[in-house]
Every structure is written in structure tokens, then in C-alpha cells.
Design a protein that fits this description.
alpha/beta; binds pyridoxal-5'-phosphate; 14 strands
């Protein structure tokens, strides 16, 4: 008996690309396994441990018997804490029925696409975008409509661009702020002008991915849901992975109009049965507890951002903006396209990353994975020492490319 994988594997899974960030991290690990000292600046996870009070809370949850299935849309005490968080931090009024807790923000986003996108529906994705948006839309049979902004616009799409992209087939608009991969933040004013373009349309919703909310270097976080009329058509997605350094706990949440929350609850009821019980118990305490560890982590990221920008600015031809959040920089390295060290030629951002991994032993991710072919993403969720060494290595190798 034989199996023909082109028949066995669904068309949908064959059409899906592998996550570029995970692929790059894998390549870096393979090189490291050969004994090469590789510094990976490719992953999107804080290099800090989960704060101790949250770990203690999980142990307490286990001891108290939080080891069973929870309600599919989340533990009552966590939903209550999320409702309070929205009120306290965002001035947004929700009830527990508007909240769906999930196995990560990624699951929340997938839930919304699965609940709303029919084959042929268009989804506007602001670029640079987070890698999974496009693949999830395609998986649901939707058509990704990418609206891009370059470094000259601080990588932020404007209202006119959004207006030009909306048509009768548009069902969803998605973006992240603070943005992965650029670290850019949409200001309240920018979101207001985008909202004014969206509001007149019927049958159109927004997914506002706010997972990096707490890693913000300029002050108050702006959410599009706070603009009058928008809360009714917005799914605000957030979670614990970044601000609380809880990537492995797999816990995120969404606040949305009740019809959408109910649909996402239904999706989870068939696919995951909801998130881990003791993770949820601890997450409620994470939200209500002392936020000092989150603030300290953000302060450390700010120091590193300054260091990375200073080091990158010394490399000829590399252009950077000044990101105001998250823990990424997204330099434009197109100056090096067509340049060679006599042996290897950098033709595009993919080549740049492959060559830098092989020659400088530094892992970064090509901007092509994020909808911008001129840039690369550098994550500064790494020690200052590693950042100095890695960017020093990039600098040294790049000077050999003429
Ligand atoms: C913009 C963005 N949204 C969502 C996620 C998913 O986060 P989670 O770990 O909560 O699934 C990530 C993680 O890298 C992200 O960068």
C-alpha cells in the first residue's frame, strides 16, 4: 500500500506556508547543533522568565484543583479580571459575555477568521503584518488584500489607503499596534481617521491585535475600539505571552460584540474545549497583581532598543525608524541588494538573512515574511551582550559586501 501525499494532504494544508519565524529559528538551531555559536534574533518571545507571583499562582491553582476543563470561553474569575482590565487600562466597558479566553492570541485571531470569513471574502491586512494573518485568511478561503506602508510612513497605513482598499467584498480589517514586525504604534488620531473611513460601511469588522500593548515606550496605549461606534464592530485581541512573558502558557483573549464572542465560543467548543485551567487561574492573578515586573521588562526593552538603533546606525546603508513599542526593529537593508563579497551576492532580503546566518552567525527574519521585501526583522529580546556581538558581526560581514 502506498500513500500519495498530494492526495492525502488537504489542498488547504498544501497551500499553507510554514511560519518563516519558526523556520529561521530552526535553521539557527541546526547551525548551532554543528557547534557554531549562533545568536538568534529571530524569535518573538521575551527572554525574561514569567514573574514569580504568576508562577506561584499557577501552583496555587493546581493545589486548589484547577485541573479540569473550564467553561469553553474561560474561567469566570479570569473573565471578570479581563473585564476590569479593559475598564482600568483602556476605558472600555465590556461584560463577561463579550470575552472569550483562548489558547493564545493566535487562537483568538483564528477563531474570528473561522467565524466570519467565507470563501471569496476579502480581508484587508496592514503591512508590514504579522506572519500568520495571511495564512489564516487563506486557510478560511478568504482573499488577503495587503495594504502596505514603508519606512517613509513609519510603516503605518493611512486612512486614504484603507479607503481605497475597501469594497463590497471586504469583511475584515486586521492590524497590530504596537506592530510586529515594526514596533510602530498607531496614535489615537491616526486610528480616528482610519475609523472614520471604516464606520460608514456595513458588514465590516476590525480585528485589533493589541498583544504588545504593555510594551509601549511612549505612554498610553491607543485602541481603535475606544472610538465611538468602533467597539460594536471590533474584536480586541490580547493575551499574556508578551506583557507577562507567558508564551508557553498558551493563553490569550478577545473582547468582541456578543454575536462574535458566541461564534468564537462555538469554534473553540469543537476545536480546543478552551484554555488550560491552571494557566487561566494564574492569569487572573497576573492581571490583578503588581505590574512592576511588566514595567521593568519594558524598561529593559527600551534600553536595548536604544542600543540596537545606535549600533545599526553605524552600519553603512542601513535605514531604521524609531519604533515606539514591541521588541523589534525593522531596518531597511535594500542598500545591500546586488552587492557581493566576491563569492556570495545578496539579491534580496531572504538572501541577506541566509548569508548573515552563514557568515555572521546571526539569525534574523526576512521582511518578505511580513509583506516588505526591503527589510529584515531583528528581535531585541536578547541580552545586551548578545545584541552587541550580533550587530557587531553583521557590521563586520556587511563591510565585505561591495
Ligand atoms: C502580532 C502578534 N499577534 C499574536 C501573536 C500570538 O500570540 P500568542 O502567543 O498569544 O498566541 C503574536 C506572537 O508572536 C504576535 O506577534
Amino acid at each position: 500500500m502506498s500513500l500519495d501525499l498530494s492526495v492525502m494532504l488537504s489542498d488547504k494544508i498544501q497551500a499553507m506556508s510554514e511560519s518563516a519565524t519558526i523556520k529561521m529559528a530552526q535553521k539557527a538551531r541546526e547551525l548551532a547543533a554543528k557547534g557554531v555559536k549562533v545568536i538568534s534574533l529571530s524569535l518573538g518571545e521575551p527572554d525574561f522568565d514569567t514573574p514569580q507571583y504568576i508562577k506561584d499562582a499557577a501552583a496555587e491553582g493546581l493545589a486548589k484543583g484547577y485541573t479540569k476543563y473550564t467553561p469553553v470561553s474561560g474561567l469566570a474569575e479570569l473573565k471578570k479580571a479581563i473585564v476590569s482590565k479593559f475598564k482600568r487600562e483602556n476605558d472600555l466597558e465590556y461584560t463577561e459575555k463579550d470575552i472569550v479566553v483562548s489558547t493564545g492570541a493566535k487562537q483568538s485571531i483564528a477563531n474570528v477568521f473561522l467565524s466570519t470569513v467565507n470563501p471569496g471574502d476579502e480581508v484587508i491586512i496592514f503591512a508590514p503584518y504579522w506572519v500568520s494573518y495571511v495564512e489564516l485568511v487563506k486557510f478560511c478561503g478568504g482573499i488577503p488584500v495587503v495594504v502596505g506602508a514603508g519606512i517613509d510612513q513609519d510603516f503605518k497605513v493611512n486612512a486614504q489607503q484603507v479607503a481605497a482598499a475597501i469594497n463590497d467584498k471586504t469583511k475584515v480589517i486586521i492590524f497590530s499596534s504596537p506592530c510586529n514586525p515594526t514596533g510602530s504604534l498607531y496614535s489615537q488620531e491616526e486610528l480616528e481617521s482610519i475609523a472614520q473611513v471604516i464606520l460608514p460601511h456595513n458588514n465590516l469588522i476590525v480585528i485589533s491585535d493589541e498583544i504588545y500593548e504593555h510594551i509601549n515606550f511612549v505612554g498610553k496605549h491607543a485602541s481603535i475600539a475606544t472610538i465611538p461606534g468602533m467597539k460594536e464592530i471590533t474584536a480586541v485581541v490580547n493575551g499574556f505571552s508578551k506583557g507577562y512573558s507567558m508564551t508557553g502558557w498558551r493563553l490569550g483573549y478577545m473582547a468582541a460584540p456578543q454575536w462574535l464572542a458566541a461564534a468564537c465560543d462555538k469554534v473553540q467548543g469543537q476545536i480546543t474545549s478552551g484554555a488550560s485551567s491552571f494557566s487561566q487561574y494564574a492569569a487572573a492573578i497576573a492581571l490583578e497583581g503588581d505590574q512592576t515586573p511588566t514595567r521593568e521588562m519594558t524598561a529593559a526593552f527600551l534600553t536595548r532598543k536604544k542600543l540596537v538603533l545606535e549600533l545599526l546606525s553605524q552600519i553603512p546603508g542601513v535605514k531604521v525608524n524609531n519604533p515606539q513599542g514591541a521588541f523589534y526593529v525593522f531596518p531597511d537593508i535594500s542598500y545591500y541588494f546586488g552587492k557581493s563579497n566576491g563569492e556570495l551576492t545578496i539579491n534580496n532580503a531572504d538572501d541577506f538573512c541566509e548569508i548573515m546566518l552563514a557568515e555572521a552567525h546571526v539569525g534574523c527574519v526576512s521582511g518578505s515574511a511580513f509583506g516588505n521585501d526591503d527589510c529584515i526583522r531583528i528581535s531585541y529580546a536578547a541580552s545586551e551582550e548578545n545584541l552587541r556581538t550580533a550587530i557587531g558581526n553583521l557590521h563586520r560581514v556587511l563591510t565585505t559586501f561591495k
